[in-house]
Amino acid sequence: MTDSTIRVAVAKYAIGAPRDFAEFADKQAQWLSQARAGGAQLAVLPEYLSLELGATFGASTQGDLHASLVAIQQYHEAWLALFGLLARELRLHIVAGSFLYDHEGRGRYRNRSYAFAPDGGRLWQDKLQLTGFEKQAGVIEPGDALKTFDLAGERAGIAICYDIEFPLPVRAQCEAGARLLIAPSCTDTQAGATRVRVGCLARALENRAFVAQAVTAGEALWSPALDTNTGEAAVYAPMDAGLPADGVLATTRGHQRWAFADLDFAALEASRERAQVANDRDWAGQWKPAIARAQRTQWDEGR
Questions:
Q1: Range(s) of the domain holding residue 72
Q2: What is the pLDDT of residues 247-285, one digit of tens each?
Q3: How far, in Å, are 36, 184, 220, 297, 302 from residue 233 at the CA level?
Q4: Pairing of strands 149-151, 154-158
Q5: What element of type H or E holds 249?
Q6: What is the pTM of this model?
Q7: What is the 3-state secondary structure (H, E, C) of 26-60?
Q8: What's 141's domain CATH number?
Q9: What is the DSSP secondary structure assignment for residue 285, as one 8-state letter?
Q10: Does some domain include residue 294?
């Protein structure tokens, strides 16, 4: 690999039922060690990962989303310490899915994705758009800040699941320099999985960017949020010269845990010069006054 290449691993993460935090921590170490053994410099885990910790409590808490959210807060500091330690020990950038965090201590939760660096650095991005399920919960609130950050010499941004379906915030991240979009996700239906996949492909096309999506897998019938999980982890690229025609650099299949892809940012930039189309360069054309608003027109009478 060259200095302009990052090897990324995206997880198709099998939801389990850990008995305690130590068992959860052992599982993270095993999974992330596999990613590192595959040469990954960045490993991406899925949205709602923290809700797996709901299994460490009794049945009445496991089956109650609100009770689970309250209960898992006791693990927040241990969560930060765990992934910070694994990032340092494995020399690996980690996007640790998301933790539903009561950031103000008032029973209102942010769906927060933490990223950890090998040098001990840590940052986070909150989910900005809430799904119907999250709105119905009544205690989850959207984030209020959009971020980008430097990762192994490149600029990246996080768009959590539903957020990757919205072009304008992602465009703002890309206009701030992001060429890698990281999308931890959790979907329970084929339709949901398709929406996120199409969102990933569209954002890659529009912005000439790579998109790395992790997913949850399997069944956790004890949890109202993680009950059923559908989809494949994948890494996407724009469909252009020198890049995959279907936009898919790598994807999981069946019981495969990780999909690996080498992201060549020099090749991504070079594709701009021989582009078949250039959605990223032509984006501003959408704002021409003549087409900023659609006009209603009348049928001409045939003569």
A1: 5-271
A2: 999 999 999 999 999 999 999 999 988 888 889 989 999
A3: 17, 9, 18, 45, 54
A4: antiparallel
A5: strand 248-251
A6: 0.96
A7: HHHHHHHHHHHHCCCCEEEECCCHHHHHHHHCCHH
A8: 3.60.110.10
A9: G
A10: no
